[in-house]
Amino acid sequence: LTLLQMLKILEGYDINKLGHNTADTLHLMIESMHLAYADRNQYLGDTDFIKIPAKGFLDDKYIAERRSLIDPKQAASNIKAGDPWKYESDKAAILEPVPTVDFPGETTHFTVRDEWGNLVSYTTTIEDVFGSGMMVPGYGFMLNNEMTDFDFTPGGANEVVPGKRPRSSMTPTIVFKDGKPVFSVGSPGGSTIITTVLQVTMNLIDHKLPVQEAIDAPRIFSSSYPNVRWEAELSKAVREELSQRGHKFDDQPSVIGSVQSIVVDLETGKLYGGADKRREGTVIGVL
């Protein structure tokens, strides 16, 4: 939902015309991230325990409402969750916002296409390093430690409850055209996963980059005002211009995500694979 919400907000702009990784494009993306993550932190959790405004999140009127909060030349300093319940027929109580905490983790992503055209985009995680520290006897895999994905402050959509699933950032994605899969994308990276998938998806669709270039392009991440994580290849001039608009970049660059992708050319039937150089990854074809 968070990925789709950001994409729908950004549909209101001519991203291709604004240019790839320009200050104008990245500013709109950062502001969209802030809007979507505010809603995510407020409303999303295990649907076995809470109701979420899934239709409201993506309602065109709600998207327009959220988009109207974006100033194309200045960062908004006080983004709050909206009220997507206004656009739902099934109303629910509004939860009080709670703080969220990010943890380092050990997640991986891979994607596979078979000879019949079945496409899989697969993200899996054990969360923290070595997960829970417990190995399953005789099977050789670690049990996860996903409890860290809960909000530890009670009262929110993602609070700890017995038997409840913690909210995850994993975003394994397959994009379709006319009912046929055209590419897969996904990544590890904790809370940065969603925006990593967003950026590679836009690189492929809006900027029409070849898959490896779409993956290699430098990324940013920002879930709330004003801090922005960035990768070393991002232009200094772009960072300076964005800083003038109110964004605050980390002192040092960092590595964000590790995407693996398969692109299907529907006209020729050819397959193109892309593997991220940020971590171990490779492209393999077997006849």
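(ticket continues) Second input and output from the same batch:
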Amino acid sequence: MLPTQLRTFYAVAREGSFTAAARVLHVSQPTLTSQIKKLEASYGIELFRRHGRGVELTETGKQLLEIAHQIISNQDEAITFLKAVKNLEAGHLKIGAVGPYQAAEILAVFHQSYPGIKVSVNFGNSRDILKDVINYRADIGIVGLHTNDATLHSLPYSNPRPIVIVPRSHPWSDRDSICLSELTNQKMIRRELGSLTRDAFESALARENVAVKFVLEISSKDGIVAAVAQNVGIGVISEEEHIPNRHVHALQISDIGIKMQVLVICHTDRSEARLIKPFFEVAAKLAAR
């Protein structure tokens, strides 16, 4: 059965006559009548009993109408959904982000403009997010790892610095900043491999030939903060990630000399996609502030 035949049958059954159905479908009555005859002939069945100017469904026709109603309803629902996506009133974006700050900032503005679009955010490190975007497991990434991969389209978003956090009981808790050399032999907590904060901070240590004692490795900013609060050691996080906390104190590193680059990325061949493009537009406006 062709889709046009099903639509024709459904219209005749709903309208109760070929004339009325022809008006609804904007086709000539002979065309419509021919389609129904071909359908009946194809399966050797009778769907309608003709009487006067109208028609009456046979028992076979009544049963087919129930099936046709489900199919047509599903098709109409699919069309409504696709139109909503086209008008940015529906859809689903999957986003990977290195931290909640940048994601929440962009999403707050994006949601105001496109409240019908569902967004799922998964937090991880930059390397994992890059892989997810390249392999189409994520639509958009908010990362801190520069890459020259030609398969990725990127937008520079912000340039945060690494900062040090210490417990409130620490002698530095009344200071605003330290220099790198003061970290010599300090017990420190490091982020996992793939973390931009770790890469930037340890590059600065190597440049200044500063040796620290890494006592623990934790794969999340919240974990770093919790460990510092428990006096396990000193931590380093991105300044954008820092939320004032009564248990820890944040200090700038006066001679860090390194800024991290946060990027919004997507697969190059999807940069003009209907849901992805407006997200980049929102991010670009925020980045230009």
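Agent notes: The chain has a mean pLDDT of 88. The CA atoms of residues 242 and 250 lie 8 Å apart. Closing as not reproducible unless the customer responds.
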